[in-house]
Each structure stands twice: as C-alpha cells, then as structure tokens.
Amino acid sequence: MQSKIILSALFVSMGIKLINDTCSVTVNKVQIESEKWNNKQPLRIIQISDMHNRKFGKNNEKVFRQLKKFTPDIVLITGDLIDRSTKEFSRVKGFIQELTLNYPHVFFVNGNHECEHPREQQLHQILIENGVKILNNENSVCNVEGTSVNIIGINDAATDHDDLQKATDRVDGNYYTILLSHAPNIVWKEEEAISQMNLILSGHTHGGQLRIPFIGALVIPEQKFPATYDQGTYKLDKDCTLYIDHGLGTTRLPVRLFCRSQITYMEVFHKEN
C-alpha cells in the first residue's frame, strides 16, 4: 500500500514537472566578457529561439511578462519561429507586432523549419513589414550606445543553406561581432572561420527537450550521445563564445522535462587585456 502511494506521488510530481517545464517561461541570464567590446556599458541582448508557433498564455503574455523586466539593446531571433506544419501565421504575426512595438532593433535568421516550410516567403514578408531585419547569409551593423556591433546571420546550417563567406562579406573586423546560426553545427562545419567571431548564438537543440538528471540530453540533432554542444555557454577561442539557447517550443513530442521553456538575457562586458 505504501509503495503504491509513493509511486502515485512520483507520477503526479512528474506530471506537474512536465506541465511546468513545457508551459511556463523562464529567463536564463548569462554574462560574458570580451576584449573586443569597447564600451563601459554592457551590450544587452535578448535571444529568442525555437518558438515553433507555440503560444504561452493569451497573446503570449507569459513571454512578454518576462521580456518587460529587461531593456535590451538588441533582440536576436535564432530561427524556428514556426513549425514546418504551421498552416497560418496569425499567431506569429501578433507576437512579432508586439515585440517590435517595444524593441526597435530585432534581427532574425531562418531555422530548419522555416527552410522546409512551403510558405517561407510569406513569413519573411510579415517580419519585414514589422521592421525585423532578416539576415540569411547577410550582415548588418547596429549602433549601440555609440559603439558599432557586427551582426552576421547565416541561413540554416543543419539543412545546408549556410554560406558563411557570403554572410561575412565586407564585415569590419574592428567591431564586436555576433554570428546568428540556428544550428550550432556551424562551429565544426566552419571551424577555422568561426574563431573570428566574438559571440555565436544558436538554438535548434532544444537542450534535448527531455533531459535526465545527472545524464543530460539523450538526443541532440546532428550529434552523437553524449552531445558535445547541447545547451549553455562554450568557450571556443580566446575571445569567441558559443551560446546555445534551448528555446521556447517543442517538436515531435509536445513536452519538456528538466529543460524549461526559456528566453535568454545576456550581458556582454568589456574585459581588460
């Protein structure tokens, strides 16, 4: 009898954990240092990734409740805003309209689900009409508090749409440089060139989506178990950091476990030589 009660309690606890990790939104706060960032004030970044057309409360109020706690200089969306099975874009349109209403500097790169969606261009048009800068194998310079920042975006590397050479054309190497790549596999596809970046922001992995305590993620796209890059911060070179956000949405299975839906708030500080 006692064992049944304990087992029932475990199932209930696991169910509550699944619902909380899948449906709530948390903020992962990250701080890094860079010699290249030449401003006394930190560069403040919000990263949003892998939403997969999910909704978090009415009009995504759970996401915006978290966003309103911060005043980022730039918002960077690292792909998979939609799912490849998304049939209409009203939900993502409402999200983008609210986002750009509050944050003027928003950048986007494709994920594999955008690349594989037959109405990719329709989504792009919604983004453009609402002031989002799309960087699929392109680059842009953003002025933050009088300091120039390179923002480079590559089209999805997991589906081989990436062209880093094209994306980095005419980039001024004197500026702090951020690379947006939905899939982190760019770090081994372009190992030599990647060290020229200061910060690489990716998603795609979902952090495994379902994680086991003390073991971690069992399945990560394009990587064998145990994965080399699944979530969090990795130092690739002296002044080159990779950060993988495990994102908001889900794919295949509509649940998360020990891997909560999240956005990331990052601050980049100047590091003295």
How is this structure best described in words?
This is Calcineurin-like phosphoesterase domain-containing protein. GO terms for molecular function: metal ion binding; UDP-2,3-diacylglucosamine hydrolase activity. Keywords: Hydrolase, Metal-binding. It comes from Gracilibacillus halotolerans. The chain has a single domain (2-270), classed as Purple Acid Phosphatase, chain A, domain 2. Strand 10 and strand 11 form a beta hairpin. It is of the alpha/beta class and 273 residues long. It contains eight helices and 14 strands. The protein has a six-stranded mixed β-sheet, with helices on one face. The protein has a six-stranded mixed β-sheet with strand order 6-7-8-9-13-12.
Question: Which secondary structure elements does this structure contain, and how are they paired or packed?
Answer:
Elements: H1 2-23, E1 26-34, E2 43-48, H2 61-67, E3 74-77, H3 90-102, E4 106-108, H4 112-115, H5 120-129, E5 133-134, E6 138-144, E7 147-154, H6 164-167, E8 176-181, H7 186-189, H8 191-194, E9 199-202, E10 211-212, E11 216-217, E12 232-237, E13 240-244, E14 262-270
Parallel strand pairs: 1-14, 2-3, 3-4, 4-5, 7-8, 8-9, 9-13
Antiparallel strand pairs: 2-14, 6-7, 10-11, 12-13
User: What is the first-to-last residue Cα distance?
Assistant: 65 Å
Number of strands: 14
Shape call: globular
Number of domains: 1
CATH fold description = Purple Acid Phosphatase, chain A, domain 2
Task: Compute the CA-based radius of gyration.
Answer: 19 Å
In the CATH classification, which architecture applies? 4-Layer Sandwich
Helix segment count? 8
Biggest sheet: strand arrangement: 1-14-2-3-4-5
Helix fraction by DSSP (H/I, runs of at least 4): 10-25%
Mean pLDDT: 94
Largest sheet: 6 strands, mixed
Helix-strand string: HEEHEHEHHEEEHEHHEEEEEE
Structural class: alpha/beta
Find the CATH superfamily. Metallo-dependent phosphatases
Low-confidence stretches: none
- Binned strand content: 25-35%
CATH class bucket: Alpha Beta
